[in-house]
Amino acid sequence: MRTIDLESLAIFRTVVEEGGVVRAAQKLHRVPSNVTTRIRQLEGFLGVRLFRREGRTLSLSAEGETLLNYAVRLLRLADEAVSDLRTGRPQGLFRLGSLESTAGSRLAPILSRYHAAHPGVVVELVTGTTGALVQRVMNFEIEAAFVSEPFTAPALQALPVFHEELVLITPSEVRRVRTARDLGRSTMIAFAQGCSYRKRLEDWLGSADVMPGRTLEFASYQGMIACVAAGTGFAIVPQSVLQTLQATQKVNQHPLPERVARNRTHLVWRGEPSLALERLVGLLQLQGAPDAMKDAPDEA
Q: Any idea which fold 164-262 has?
């Protein structure tokens, strides 16, 4: 579909401002016939007359008045875009994905500082599982996402940003869990498939040949923790989430083997980062991201 080009709008505006084709041509360093042709082409494209010719003078038609209002706004926006880009200030919409746990316990102070430094950027935050977020980044539906190990994304760039300590939580009457076998056929409470924490838990249970009696899937940690506190089953959660939700007294916490408990959250993206993403990466690195930017491993 054809659209009006900005150069035609600029010529039209100049003709209006200068009061005629000849003076507009002089200002634009064009020959009058070229200006006349561009105006006629614009009128032909729109299917309306933009000027009324009264003797040797031109005056705007009603349609011309309408177009002039749009032309002024569009040309001003174009000038602002060029100015902002040339000054190196990030602007516009920045679509960012995050695990719910990271959004709830980690991002508020970071995004607050980011907004203070870059008020022209509008951050649109979406949450999901690691698997879903990685796929959305791969499809360019979001520009970047905070995801957790393990994930498979050889085409993505990754910056490790947070260390998480995962703990097993059970109802308060379950005093001690030494091994996965101590859970027996209890109910597992987790996010949907694609959650990397769920995969860690399932791998740990599988290594001991433990099969949960059933699995209940939730969409929020609040729901998961409430269900565990009510005595329904067990779950795996980051310790930072329990502290943020002030839920440490509602359930019992049990340590997990180090290979299960220790986890890292990464910021991942595909291709060349935008200016908005570059600024976020810089902010995270200043806050002490543990490793420099690197290619994401096949299996982190």
A: D-Maltodextrin-Binding Protein; domain 2 (3.40.190)
pLDDT tens digit string along 277-293? 999 999 998 876 444 33
Specify which residues 137 forms β-bridges with.
none
CA atoms within 13 A on the CB side of 183: 30
Residue type, 27: K
| Per-residue pLDDT at 288 | 64
Judge whether 163 and 99 are in contact, CB under 8 Å. Answer: no
Q: How far is CA 212 from the centre of its chain?
A: 35
Cross-strand partners of 235: 169
**Is 106 within 8 Å of 162 (Cβ atoms)?**
yes
Kindly indicate the confidence band of residue 2, based on its pLDDT and cuts at 50, 70 and 90. low
Rounded CA-CA distance 230/76 in Å is 59
Q: What is the largest CA-CA distance in the chain?
A: 97
Half-sphere exposure of 88 (CA within 13 A, CB side): 2
Question: How much is the pLDDT for 290?
Answer: 44
* Closest C-alpha to 225, from 204, 239, 210: 239
Residue 246 tokens read as 């002030």
> In this predicted model, what pLDDT tens digit does every residue of 139-197 receive, in sequence order?
888 999 999 988 887 889 999 999 989 999 999 888 889 899 999 889 999 988 888 88
**Domain locations in the chain as residue ranges:** 6-86, 92-162+265-295, 164-262
